[in-house]
Design a protein that fits this description.
It comes from Caenorhabditis elegans. Residues 1-19 form the signal peptide. Belongs to the metallophosphoesterase superfamily. Purple acid phosphatase family. Its EC number is 3.1.3.2. The chain has helices spanning 2-21, 132-140, 163-176, 196-201, 230-233, 235-238, 241-258, 288-295, 304-309, 421-425, 448-454; strands at residues 25-30, 38-44, 52-56, 63-65, 68-74, 77-86, 94-99, 102-107, 116-121, 124-125, 146-149, 153-154, 181-183, 215-219, 222-226, 266-270, 296-297, 300-301, 314-317, 323-326, 329-330, 333-334, 348-352, 372-376, 380-386, 391-398, 404-412. The protein is of the alpha+beta class. It has two domains: 24-109, Immunoglobulin-like; 112-425, 4-Layer Sandwich (Purple Acid Phosphatase, chain A, domain 2). It has a seven-stranded mixed beta sheet with strand order 14-15-16-19-23-20-24, covered by helices on one side. The longest helix has 20 residues, at 2-21. The protein is globular and about 55 Å long. Bound molecules: fe (ii) ion (FE2). Fe (ii) ion is lined by residues 152, 186-188, 272, 319.
Length: 455
């Protein structure tokens, strides 16, 4: 009798586990590049075939998106990545979708929207996610149309055999099942298995390389480009091929975008490691591995010359756990006059890496670089408003100050304006100390006093 009861209990437990294992979790949506489509990715812990049924809200499920399923193993745990693409969507329309009896919804943007808002941040953890509640609250209230996460996701996606990544995505599921979640990898996405967790957990627009590391999409007046700085940061781990594969793609993408300004007058890039910063933590922006991203090294091409050649308008960066806004800057030449953000003569860059990291507040050098326009090391996140073809607004929301706006600025440019090489050469730039020692040399780290003296 007792054996029977025990077996029954075990059977119920097994059934329960299998049932739980097939329940979709970590459900999130993202753009495919075609705005009549929406990708949805979810996870199960058991092998199961699942599709997505969807239809206009109030009309019931009228379509089915076939789900693909792929097993992947990390830390001894087998997970099943599922992906489906909802197609044939109408603009400005609410849709309901269902995966294995779990119900979600989202709303499509208008056709070629000329104005919209984007939530931009980097460096947000499952633990110490200081901005999480605020971002979810504002997202569910409809305060932005999609999210750009500038790398360093969950701290880390792979921690505790990937269970921190699972928990993070489940916490955000109410928001990111409803609002597209566009990501790019940071240094914390390297899981010692060539970014496996990052590759398997997300979906981005196709770049022709079956790779989530870089991609672009057009939305209204903006051509958005996600760039991996980690191909540079981890080149000693994974070699030069990822650097050059991305660079070749990026050169083509930016060149094409630059010739397509009539349709999309702005080019926005987003990436993890910055070109410039004035934080004191290990002199990050002067350290060898981070300078590679901007300047390149030997045969390795850096990104800044390409951004200048193709007249990139905006660059959003994370990695530094703070907020910093820069004046238009080109290879250390800068324009800091009061009208610098009107028809900028060089790209405008912004660090928004203070969403909620695993370390305390980031400290700044006593004196900023001359091209640094504003700094704030409160926890927080940014909201970018694409107002129209000529006006862009950025606001920085402080969590420490009860969601007060601590920075607010506009970038304005005339139709057809592009910063020119001739203008860049007009300013000789500022003295910029070079970090010559190798990045693996810990003696390379400089003290705050040394950095301030150099400034
Ligand atoms: Fe980072």
């Amino acid at each position: 009798m007792s054996i029977h009861i025990t077996l029954t209990v075990i059977s119920l437990l097994v059934t329960k586990c299998i049932s739980e294992g097939t329940t979709p979790d970590q459900v999130h949506i993202s753009f495919t590049g075609d705005m009549t489509e929406m990708a949805v990715v979810w996870n199960t812990f058991s092998e199961v075939s699942q599709d997505v049924t969807y239809g206009k809200t109030g009309s019931g499920a009228t379509s089915t998106a076939k789900g693909s399923s792929e097993a992947w193993v990390f830390g001894g745990i087998t997970r099943y990545r599922h992906k489906a693409i909802m197609t044939g969507l109408e603009y400005s329309t609410e849709y309901d979708y269902t995966i294995a009896s779990r119900k979600f919804s989202f709303k499509t943007l208008s056709n070629d929207p000329q104005s919209y808002k984007v939530c931009v941040f980097g460096d947000l953890g499952y633990w110490h996610g200081n901005s999480t509640e605020s971002i979810i609250k504002h997202g569910l209230a409809g305060d932005f149309d999609f999210i750009v996460h500038l790398g360093d996701i969950a701290y880390d996606l792979h921690t505790n055999n990937g269970q921190v990544g699972d928990s993070y995505l489940n916490v955000f599921e109410p928001l990111i099942s409803k609002v597209p979640y566009m990501v790019i990898a940071g240094n914390h996405e390297d899981d010692y298995q060539n970014f496996t967790n990052y590759q398997k957990r997300f979906s981005v627009p196709d770049n022709g390389h079956n790779d989530n590391q870089f991609y672009s999409f057009d939305l209204g007046p903006v051509h958005w480009v996600g760039v991996s700085t980690e191909t540079y940061g981890y080149y000693y781990e994974y070699g030069m091929d990822p650097v050059m594969t991305q660079y070749d793609w990026l050169k083509r993408d930016l060149t094409t975008a630059n010739s397509n300004r009539a349709a999309h007058p702005w080019i926005f890039t987003f990436q993890h490691r910055p070109f410039y910063c004035s934080n004191v933590n290990s002199a990050e922006c002067q350290s060898f591995e981070n300078r590679l991203v901007r300047t390149g090294w030997l045969d390795m091409p850096g990104l800044e010359p390409l951004f200048l050649q193709t007249s990139v308008d905006f660059g959003f960066w994370g990695h530094e756990h703070s907020y910093e806004r820069f004046y238009p800057v080109a290879d250390r030449a800068y324009w800091n006059d009061p009208n610098a953000y009107i028809n900028p003569k060089a790209p405008v860059y912004l660090i928004s890496g203070s969403a909620g990291c695993h370390t305390p507040d980031a400290l700044f050098t006593d004196k900023p670089w001359p091209w640094s326009a504003a700094r704030n090391n409160d926890y927080g996140w940014s909201i970018v408003t694409v107002a129209n073809r000529t006006h862009i607004r950025v606001e920085q929301i402080s969590i420490d100050k009860n969601e007060q706006t601590v920075d607010d600025f506009w970038v304005i440019k005339d139709e057809g304006h592009m910063h020119s090489g001739e203008m860049r050469r007009a300013n000789p730039g500022a003295k910029f100390p070079l970090q010559k020692c190798h990045f693996k040399d810990v003696a390379c780290k400089r003290s705050l006093k040394e950095i301030n003296e150099e400034l």
